[in-house]
What we know:
Layout: H1 2-8, E1 12-17, E2 21-28, E3 31-39, E4 45-46, E5 49-50, H2 53-67, E6 74-78, E7 84-89, H3 98-105, E8 114-121, E9 128-135, H4 136-148, E10 153-158, H5 159-167, E11 171-177, E12 181-188, E13 191-199, H6 208-227, E14 241-244, H7 251-261, E15 265-267, H8 280-290
Parallel strand pairs: 1-6, 6-10, 11-14, 14-15
Antiparallel strand pairs: 1-2, 2-3, 4-5, 7-9, 8-9, 11-12, 12-13
Helix pairs in contact: 2-4, 5-8, 6-7
Amino acid sequence: MSRLSDLLKPERVTLLLEEETARLLAVREEHVVRWGSAPIPRGAIADGRVRDIEAVAGAVQRLWDVHQPPREGVIVGVPGVAVTTRMLSVAGAGVPGDEEVRAAAAQNLDLDEVYLAWQLVGPPSQRVVYVLAMPRSVLDAYLAVLDLAAVAPAAIDLKQLALIRAVGHRHTIVVDLERAVLSVVVVDEALPRLVRVWPLHAPLLARPDDKVTRAAEALGLAIADYNREPSGSYLHPAVPIHLTGALSDQVLLREVVQVALGHPAVLAPAPFETPPDLPVTHYLANMGLALKQL
């Protein structure tokens, strides 16, 4: 009966859209129960923006045709390339409300042009919020993809935030090395304090080893930038580096990172029970989406 009961429980379905690939993963009761990917035509998503709605929707539709997951309540992840983030102090007392945060954000952002999300950082008495803004044109294009593919989202999240959630460390560096894009996220108190993204399309970066070398160089630059910030923040050498993405299992990457930068580097583990043939680092962002509180 317990097995039947587990099968009757709803799946938490996630969809990650990236430059080269759409990835589907579903979780039920802390177990990954289905997963798969479909290629996205080159150029259909570029620089974090949808350039060809029909092409991306076609890849999503192929995933649903093959794997047959529920179409309602899907948690969707998108690239965080075109996103603006701010740490804001909100005047007043007590827990800030949405209107107060929007008024503070309006001093730096055109709220008619962006979708805004925020969360409180630290004690409510300090009234410090982390604000994230995405251009309406960018998010609207992803919503058009989902509508055309007949997928109803419960929430839309950024890949970088999903990775932070999946890794589960309040202080770390997340290096996400895909074939087309590299991103480095410095995480402090479970928030992305610094995000850097580099395209990897150049002819000189055709081989995986070339991309690994570029990743190590870019990571060094990101750490140096963070350590130079006027806030006085400094990354201790003991802060771990969690590696994710399709190329993160390259042994050279771990060796170069640890030797050149002095930080311990590990492949990010799965936060769920997974089948032995699931390539965890390819689907870690999907798992972070599945952990999102709705």
